[in-house]
Amino acid sequence: MRPGPSSERAVVLASSEREAVETACLIRDAGYYANICGDLAVLRREIASGAGLAVIADDAIKGADLTDLTRWLNDQPAWSDFPIVLLTQGGSLERDPGAVRLGKILGNVTFIERPFHPTTLASIVGSAVRGRRRQYQTRAILEDLTESESLLQTALNAGQLGALELHLPEFELEASDICKAYFGRRASEHFTYPELLDAVHPDDRERRLGVLEQSIRTGKHYAIEYRVIWPDGSQHWLDVRARAVRRPDG
Description:
Number of strands: 9
Order of helices and strands: HEHEHEHHEHEHEEHHHEE
Strand order of the largest sheet: 2-1-3-4-5
Distance between the termini: 34 Å
CATH topology of the largest domain: Rossmann fold
Strand content: 15-25%
């Protein structure tokens, strides 16, 4: 899904119709989309259907039941941190504990003290929309990764290919069910790296270790054939291909 007018719009809830119209007009004049919400329930539905941010007057929700809104905010997926602009009455936040409380409840909140200059609202709305776009980009990346992993798993299953990951320096092994089967293990069995090493034919262990160390050192692909001995004593050949992937910390 690509971000668009609906997913980048500002949804506005004010204390009066006049204030709502004026606020929405300022946002539109700044080049952004805006929709007015008649009450808190409508605001909640509009946010859930897709929005870039919410602009809320604090006196429009003070004393209101925020259960549905906070539930949606708390249940956001990992990529999402929905931005809210809270319009407060004149005076510092230290003198308005109600606004501070709302900020803590609503999470990703930016405060604007009324009355405000139109450019102030435009700047904050612009920052919120850009931040929301970055969140959508993160969502798209995660969706692509999920799809890629699904396609890879389909290909592995179709080709009866096993998959394993070896995490260094802990030497923690993650092996797929098919991979375990190629070492004579059941899917339900716990399979560790020391057990993998023990399964390698004694005559092939030194050669396998040399290829592995070279791959880790140089980053070249790991490609080798070696024999493994199953728990029942039978001997089998494996063709193993892998590559080293370094973490950000090296």
